[in-house]
Amino acid sequence: MRTLRPGQRAELYVVDVATNERRLVHESSTLLFEAPNWTGDWLIVNGDGNLYRIPVDGGDLEQLELGGVPAVNNDHVVSPDGDTVYVSAEDGHLYAVPLAGGSPRKVSNDRGPEFHHYLHGISPDGRTLAYIGLENRADGNRITNVYTIPAAGGADVQVTDDEYADDGSEYGPDGRWIYFNSERASTTPGHAQLFRIAGDELEQLTFDERVNWFPHPAPDGSMVAYVSFPPGTLGHPEDIDDVRVRLLPSGGGSPRDLATLFGGQGTMNVPSWSPDSTRLAYVAYPVD
């Protein structure tokens, strides 16, 4: 589990996408929390293998009961009705946890010890989860592809089938497109850009020198938020300077910076839009 460095803080912010005005919701110098989900008037973050919730207007972190689910990581989503949080656990599987309490349910299928599920999205109707399947192959290669699975459990559907580095798969508000980041358009290792896929249709969304990860379509479909790393970054590391939270108009055009910070991994890995598409939540990790 990640921990804070000496002199480091985790800072949870909410930012207005129209004005760029941000508000500090919570900070900690003891708990490294990550990846805010927004559900109703609450934000949900993970830290130290647990899940916590906090009012959007600020307050204390309240630990959520996971009912015996193994330690969770920063890949988690909330159902559209706000009743269930779906989590990726360190045993490589996906679980459904009732937010009001009750017994959790394992969602993912056993695909062998070398296959791990990393959850990033849920369809607008709450019926289907989008995840990244990571396969550690015998030849030493780590292969990632986009998959879906019914939220109630069932057969997996493989959406991409190749050896490009893919991550961050998330449904758009129309339920048709799945947005993700990939290195499929570059010959430079680590140079991820944003894409979306629907069946046999594939569209590239960003075309710049920065390394772009974790696309989050706004609920109203007007724009896509994402995390942008400096050129030459490999993967989505922690504790990087000049990390930017950016907005890309859905109808095309140039991205604009919403925030610049010290962070990266954990800043905005999962859906973090307010339901009305006016605000975003993210985490920065400054060091004194």
UniProtKB/TrEMBL annotation:
Domain of life per record: Bacteria
InterPro entries tied to this protein: 6-blade_b-propeller_TolB-like, WD40
Cross-referenced Pfam families: PD40
Family statement: Belongs to the TolB family.
Name of the protein: WD40 repeat protein
Species this protein is from: Kribbella voronezhensis
